[in-house]
Specification:
This protein is α+β, with helices and mostly antiparallel strands. It is built from 21 helices and 12 strands.
């Protein structure tokens, strides 16, 4: 591993507004920061390096385009999450004792139903009932014996070493069973829902009781409706799962159309205001969106111009057009380290004191217009960087979503880059303190064949799952590899399943609202419930 030390600072600060016009958070972001990144020389993982400098830089541009709304929350640290969102509700809450009583009373009904199943040779349904009994009373002797569990000397119950699933030998009785179960357990369901209403439960507390109800009545209309669920074939899934299934082909079609319709770049001549970078450009190509100054081949320069334009078109189609007309930005495409050295030494918006820190930079943001330089090792990395830089420019300037809002900045950037280029090369490397599990996860994610959704599903169902409320408050340099992966999944959930709400969430964040409050207000659910829905959506999406 090669260590790259990067100075995060604002290039072209001469164009910035006066400090009095910049919110305190933005002013702090302009201070020089030193960060260390690890770069891989053997895998296709691009380095962030000074790329983040352009993101810090755009804070100035965001401040010019936006003013913080009077009375709106600070975009700094969010207030602590509610007890419900960060931890299970108080176990001593009165409704919990009432719930336990209702469930305990339901055992007699479940046993009665099990007897009916036995008499009617619906043995598979009988076993499901006894499994429900054990969820309520883990020591229920009859249920354990019916399921052929073995009790050890110390009193523990163990499933048999070899199990043969029970079968329904009376299909007609098995077909009648769901209706019978619904009718017999209707009083229990009504009692549980009465607790929800009487105690005005919401969030995870309400979800707990809803879980009880659908175990007794899988088709319960109120619970399925209030949970925002629908049938996909014979299976109940989240409405988001159905919307995302319909949305993904549309998103891919949007990207394909944007690439096909991107304006063909044409040659242009450098103008007097263009900086003298000390290089003899081999190719100058541009269109209404971008001007490419390239030291490489014409075909690659044209490719960069088309992809930058298509990226803007795609983001506009997904998130809405910006409030202000965009000005074309300049893209300086280099290939050799010597060209980068010459560029850094001569570009007027790079101060001499900044040059040593940028010596190994793969990409550098230059000014409030969004101009940037890229000097990645190969064509695939250069294209990935071009698209990611363009997305970062849109997020910061058009929406005010800054690197401080790491989950959105990283997650949306990686997700949309993947849709446009098929690659996910631009993200933070691991800190030196990474543990073995994090090193293993990064190695898996770096592979071109990696399925990030599968990796995320495994992680989010394990003890390594990041706390979502804490993740929403993190800056980019605080993210772990697990945070990064969850950010990617959350971005996918929002762009695929909550397409209407996502622009409102981003604009609320850009206007100064914390991520927690923006997500809670726009989606209408607590963060803990959002966490549960995202994880369920991911399991249904795979």
């Amino acid at each position: 591993m090669e260590a790259v030390s990067v100075m995060l600072t604002v290039l072209g600060a001469r164009e910035s507004p006066t400090p009095s016009r910049v919110p305190a958070m933005l002013a702090r972001s302009l201070a020089p920061l030193r960060r260390s990144f690890a770069t891989s020389t053997s895998t296709a993982i691009a380095r962030r390096s000074a790329w983040i400098a352009s993101s810090v830089l755009v804070l100035v541009c965001a401040a010019l385009a936006r003013t913080q709304h009077p009375g709106s929350p600070s975009n700094g640290a969010s207030p602590p999450a509610t007890q419900e969102a960060s931890a299970p509700a108080n176990e001593a809450a009165p409704w919990r004792a009432e719930r336990a009583a209702v469930l305990s009373q339901s055992i007699a009904t479940l046993e009665k139903l099990a007897d009916w199943c036995t008499a009617n040779e619906a043995f598979a349904e009988r076993d499901k009932l006894f499994e429900l009994v054990l969820r309520i009373d883990p020591e229920h002797f009859r249920a354990h014996k019916a399921l052929k569990h073995v009790q050890t000397r110390d009193g523990k119950w163990l499933p048999p070493e070899k199990t043969t699933p029970s079968r329904n030998f009376n299909p007609a009785a098995a077909a009648r069973f769901p209706t019978r179960m619904r009718e017999e357990l209707a009083p229990c369901c009504a009692a549980l829902l009465a607790l929800v209403d009487r105690h005005d439960l919401d969030g995870l507390d309400r979800e707990l009781l809803f879980d009880d109800v659908v175990r007794f009545d899988p088709e319960h209309p109120r619970v399925r409706g209030e949970r925002g669920e629908t049938k996909l074939g014979d299976v109940w899934v989240l409405e988001e799962t159905v919307r995302a299934k319909e949305r993904r082909p549309q998103l891919k079609a949007t990207v394909k159309r944007a690439l096909a319709d991107a304006a063909e770049p044409h040659e242009f001549r450098a103008e007097e205001h263009d900086p003298d970078c000390g290089l003899e450009w081999k190719c100058l190509l541009g269109n209404e969106s971008v001007r490419v100054f390239s030291m490489g081949e014409r075909d690659e320069a044209a490719l960069f111009a088309r992809y930058a334009t298509a990226t803007l078109t795609t983001v506009d189609a997904l998130l809405g057009t910006p409030d202000l007309a965009r000005q074309p930005f300049s893209l300086y495409a280099l290939k050799l380290a010597t060209e980068r050295s010459t560029f850094l030494a001569n570009h007027p918006q790079i101060e001499p004191a900044q040059r040593p820190a940028l010596a190994n930079a793969v990409t550098v943001g230059l000014n409030v217009r969004g101009d940037f330089m890229t000097c990645a090792q190969n064509a695939e990395e250069r294209l990935d960087t071009v698209v990611r830089q363009t997305i970062a420019h849109v997020l910061t300037v058009d929406y005010g979503v800054l690197p401080q809002t790491a989950w959105a900045f990283e997650g949306i950037g990686m997700y949309l880059t993947r849709e446009l280029t098929g690659t996910r090369m631009t993200y933070f490397s691991l800190p030196a303190s990474a543990n073995a599990a994090q090193v293993k996860l990064r190695k898996q994610l770096v592979s071109p064949k990696a399925n990030w959704m599968n990796e995320a599903h495994e992680m989010l169902e394990s003890e390594r799952k990041p706390d979502l409320a804490a993740l929403l408050r993190k800056n980019v340099d605080e993210l772990t590899i697990e945070d990064l992966l969850y950010s990617y999944v959350l971005a996918a959930y929002l762009l695929e399943a909550r397409a209407v709400e996502t622009p409102r969430i981003l604009r609320s964040i850009g206007d100064g609202m914390s991520s927690e409050n923006a997500l809670r207000d726009v989606l209408g659910i607590e963060i803990a419930v959002l966490d549960a829905r995202v994880r369920r959506w991911l399991s249904e999406r795979r």
